[in-house]
């Protein structure tokens, strides 16, 4: 998990305007609103860059987090939208111009105003244009809404996908100029009908409003819990089938897929991700068609599927797309939906999980497409890629099953009415690589959700009533992508088995909630990354904001590497959330509004108190309301008392730690030694000065060595080296006649040095011969010549004087020693020492 910098900041805490953005509006009268139980966790927050849209009851509030953080007088605006039920979900379109609002049974689309309206002084509510989607399809009498999504390939990002709890999928290609686009979907699919259909001979669309419905066993198995698309087409390396695949998770714990699910018009923008999307899509279809055509074991359905994929691809490739320029300057290519195959694809699934896991129910899911795009080895080769994916399933007991789909989901269709081949059951397995348990022995609940991380792939947050958890699969998914993008046949099975068995998923809890807060309303979280706001996780607990600020990893650095860097470096102490007083201690309490007195009994409050059943019921209701309120006050006060006691204990612990740390600091600063002339900060400054001086000396020495090394390594020689080289050349030419040149003149003598050297060598040789001859001549005569050495008389006199001086010195030493011994009382006879020479 990225390093936590802090928890709920001051600009989101009470009494700042950021806190009041999430606070419900107090009302003395209770609205006559029917309450419906939500099928999952509420998603009351949606973001557009640094802007935030918050659903509070029946209201939608709009603010800019950057203004809430930095402006002196921040403000927010209200969007006046008429809604019949409390808001359950908010979803922003990819282009950021529409807001999909979902209640328990209805869906609405709000045309968002321009961001400049937040900078005005006008505080009146904004009344944007609002359209109800499916006024006859999404009503109270029909199935509740399970999920709303924006299609990633929708034309101008205006294709809304709604999925009901009973398994009805509808595509709405909305257009403000055409009101009928909000009334009738361009495509509707009944998953229960599609699951039992064998061909397109039956009507597979959703039943009309008011039509009778028969019971089917598949109705319980196809109760939708969540849905999502494979991945975003803007990411480079995503396979072409991924953004066209709608993954569906049912409450019963089964996973299905619809591929390809396209609106009548879909678009691709000019981005590297969309280019690789088409390349992988075309190469995958061509390779599959070639393999099936050459295989003798291929069934009739497999051959028909490969042929349908090829014709479906031809409709896309060989039709000229319509190019449009958006108002922001981007260019898009608009494609019509291929007409050679039916618009409703085959419902693939339920997929089998291997190895088997215990029975569970699903609450939410998220799917990541593996980036296995690889260029061809040669210029003429096509780019390839696998439609593999990682599916993360969130169970009702707060467990996450991480499943690996190695085969991938491809486009498939039912047989047409009259085709000779029949539908064959497929064997599609999901490999359960890891099961992550976040809460031990958690109770079954659907109030939990998954929020993908906006900073890194394969990372997401799980919202639960016990807190918010961060899960990152990036450390081992990247290795899996490399293995699949550069396959080697030798040892592939062993490497994949080792990789899947040694998964190292990081799981940490970034928001902790007290056990007493589990009964409060918890909502799904959102992740925001902005230059001013920072890397922020935001959620609400009982209509109060809770946030965590993270330290965003550097661009190009994976989350795992950044996490390892924090471990190697300085690790600060744990950042704890600041305590805020509970709202029971400061919120106003209106007893009159809480009693909910009927209108016919309100006049009794002005009369005298009489013993009557109506007054008795009123007193009992007042006692019940007051007892509940006082109980909440008692719990709030007890919590405050416990916090104060904890604060005192922590202060004592801090004082103890400081007392233990003080002697160590004194030992470093020298305050523990009294005889030092310099102590305290002066000693540390003196030591720092010496260290700096030593560092400067080392730096100067290093620079000198560096300059010397730089001069040695240069190809040019210095002046001294060139002079020494010239001297050596001159000396060589003067000593060797073969090296002599016409311009050589060493010492200005007519006879060169080498000739003089030869003359000396010849003279030496001749003298040596003469000496040998003289020795031989004396030896032949047999006589030996005795030479008498005559010593001069002067030398003999000098030697005699030196001997006399030495004898006199010895005599003086002997006399001095004798006198000293006599002084000590030792009797020594007289003796005379004479010397001569």
UniProtKB/TrEMBL annotation:
<dbReference type="GO" id="GO:0017056">
    <property type="term" value="F:structural constituent of nuclear pore"/>
</dbReference>
<dbReference type="InterPro" id="IPR036322">
    <property type="entry name" value="WD40_repeat_dom_sf"/>
</dbReference>
<dbReference type="GO" id="GO:0000056">
    <property type="term" value="P:ribosomal small subunit export from nucleus"/>
</dbReference>
<dbReference type="GO" id="GO:0005643">
    <property type="term" value="C:nuclear pore"/>
</dbReference>
<keyword id="KW-0653">Protein transport</keyword>
<dbReference type="InterPro" id="IPR015943">
    <property type="entry name" value="WD40/YVTN_repeat-like_dom_sf"/>
</dbReference>
<dbReference type="InterPro" id="IPR037700">
    <property type="entry name" value="NUP88/NUP82"/>
</dbReference>
<keyword id="KW-0509">mRNA transport</keyword>
<keyword id="KW-0539">Nucleus</keyword>
<dbReference type="GO" id="GO:0006406">
    <property type="term" value="P:mRNA export from nucleus"/>
</dbReference>
<feature type="coiled-coil region">
    <location>
        <begin position="681"/>
        <end position="708"/>
    </location>
</feature>
<keyword id="KW-0813">Transport</keyword>
<dbReference type="GO" id="GO:0000055">
    <property type="term" value="P:ribosomal large subunit export from nucleus"/>
</dbReference>
<protein>
    <submittedName>
        <fullName>Uncharacterized protein</fullName>
    </submittedName>
</protein>
<dbReference type="GO" id="GO:0006606">
    <property type="term" value="P:protein import into nucleus"/>
</dbReference>
<keyword id="KW-0906">Nuclear pore complex</keyword>
<keyword id="KW-0175">Coiled coil</keyword>
<keyword id="KW-0811">Translocation</keyword>
């Amino acid at each position: 998990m990225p390093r936590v910098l802090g928890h709920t900041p001051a600009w989101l805490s009470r009494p700042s305007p950021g806190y009041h953005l999430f606070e419900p509006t107090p009302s003395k009268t209770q609205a006559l609103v029917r309450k419906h139980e939500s099928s999952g966790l509420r998603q009351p927050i949606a973001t557009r860059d640094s802007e935030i849209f918050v659903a509070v009851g029946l209201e939608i509030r709009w603010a800019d987090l950057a203004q809430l953080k930095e402006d002196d007088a921040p403000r927010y605006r209200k969007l006046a939208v008429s809604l019949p039920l409390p808001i359950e979900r908010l979803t922003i379109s990819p282009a950021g111009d529409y807001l999909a609002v979902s209640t328990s049974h209805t869906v609405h689309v709000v045309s968002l105003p321009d961001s400049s309206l937040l900078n005005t002084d006008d505080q009146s509510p904004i009344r944007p244009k609002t359209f109800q989607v499916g006024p006859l399809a999404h009503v109270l009498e029909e199935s509740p809404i399970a999920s709303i999504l924006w299609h990633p390939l929708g034309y101008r990002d205006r294709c809304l996908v709604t999925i009901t709890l009973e398994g009805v999928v509808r595509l709405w290609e909305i257009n403000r100029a055409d009101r009928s686009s909000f009334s009738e979907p361009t495509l509707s699919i009944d998953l229960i009908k599609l699951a039992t259909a064998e061909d397109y001979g039956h009507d597979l669309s959703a039943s009309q409003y008011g039509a009778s419905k028969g019971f089917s066993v598949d109705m319980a198995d196809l109760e939708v819990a969540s849905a999502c698309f494979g991945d975003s087409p803007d990411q480079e390396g995503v396979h072409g089938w991924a953004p066209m695949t709608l993954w569906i998770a049912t409450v019963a714990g089964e996973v299905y897929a619809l591929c390809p699910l396209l609106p009548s018009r879909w678009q691709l923008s000019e981005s590297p991700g969309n280019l690789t999307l088409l390349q992988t899509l075309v190469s995958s279809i061509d390779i599959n068609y070639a393999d099936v055509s050459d295989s003798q074991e291929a069934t009739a359905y497999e051959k028909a599927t490969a042929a349908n994929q090829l014709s479906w691809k031809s409709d896309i490739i060989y039709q000229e797309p319509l190019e449009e320029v958006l108002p922001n300057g981007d260019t898009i290519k608009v494609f019509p939906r291929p007409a050679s195959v039916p618009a409703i694809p085959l419902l693939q699934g339920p997929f089998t999980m291997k190895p088997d896991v215990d029975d569970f129910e699903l609450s939410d899911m998220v799917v990541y497409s593996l980036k296995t795009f690889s260029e061809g080895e040669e210029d003429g080769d096509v780019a390839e890629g696998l439609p593999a994916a990682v599916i993360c399933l969130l169970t009702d007991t707060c467990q996450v099953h991480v499943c690996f789909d190695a085969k991938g989901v491809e486009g498939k269709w039912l047989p047409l009415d009259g085709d000779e081949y029949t539908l064959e059951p497929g064997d599609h397995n999901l490999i359960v690589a890891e099961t992550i348990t976040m809460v031990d022995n958690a109770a079954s609940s659907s109030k939990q959700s998954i929020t993908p991380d906006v900073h890194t792939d394969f990372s997401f947050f799980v919202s639960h009533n016990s807190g918010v958890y961060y899960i990152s699969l990036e450390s081992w998914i990247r290795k899996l992508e490399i293995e699949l993008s550069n396959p080697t046949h030798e040892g592939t099975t062993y490497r994949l088995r080792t990789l899947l068995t040694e998964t190292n998923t990081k799981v940490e809890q970034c928001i902790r909630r007290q056990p007493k807060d589990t009964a409060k309303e918890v909502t799904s979280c959102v992740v925001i990354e902005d230059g001013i706001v920072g890397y922020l996780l935001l959620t609400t607990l009982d209509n109060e904001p809770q946030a965590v600020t993270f330290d965003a990893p550097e661009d190009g650095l994976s989350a795992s590497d950044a996490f390892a860097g924090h471990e190697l470096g300085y690790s600060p102490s744990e950042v704890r959330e600041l305590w805020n007083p509970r709202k029971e201690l400061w919120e106003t309490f209106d007893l009159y509004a809480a009693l909910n007195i009927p209108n016919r009994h309100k006049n009794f409050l002005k009369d005298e108190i009489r013993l009557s059943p109506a007054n008795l019921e009123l007193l009992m209701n007042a006692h019940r309301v007051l007892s509940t309120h006082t109980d909440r006050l008692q719990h709030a006060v007890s919590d405050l008392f416990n916090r104060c006691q904890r604060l005192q204990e922590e202060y004592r612990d801090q004082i103890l730690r400081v007392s233990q740390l003080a002697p160590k600091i004194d030992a470093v600063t020298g305050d523990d030694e009294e005889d030092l002339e310099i102590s305290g900060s002066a000693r540390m400054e003196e030591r720092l000065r010496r260290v700096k001086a030593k560092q400067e000396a080392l730096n100067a020495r290093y620079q000198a060595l560096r300059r010397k090394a730089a001069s040695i390594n240069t190809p040019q020689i210095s002046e001294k080296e060139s002079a020494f080289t010239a001297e050596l050349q001159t000396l060589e030419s003067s000593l060797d006649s073969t090296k002599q040149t016409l311009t050589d003149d060493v010492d200005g003598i007519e006879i060169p040095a080498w000739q003089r050297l030869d003359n000396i060598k010849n003279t030496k040789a001749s003298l040596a011969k003469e000496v040998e001859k003289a020795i031989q001549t004396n030896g032949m005569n047999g006589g030996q010549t005795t030479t008498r050495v005559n010593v001069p008389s002067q030398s003999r006199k000098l030697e005699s004087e030196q001997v006399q001086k030495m004898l006199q010195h010895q005599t003086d030493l002997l006399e001095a020693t004798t006198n000293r011994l006599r002084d000590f009382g030792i009797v020594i006879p007289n003796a005379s020492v004479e010397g001569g020479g």
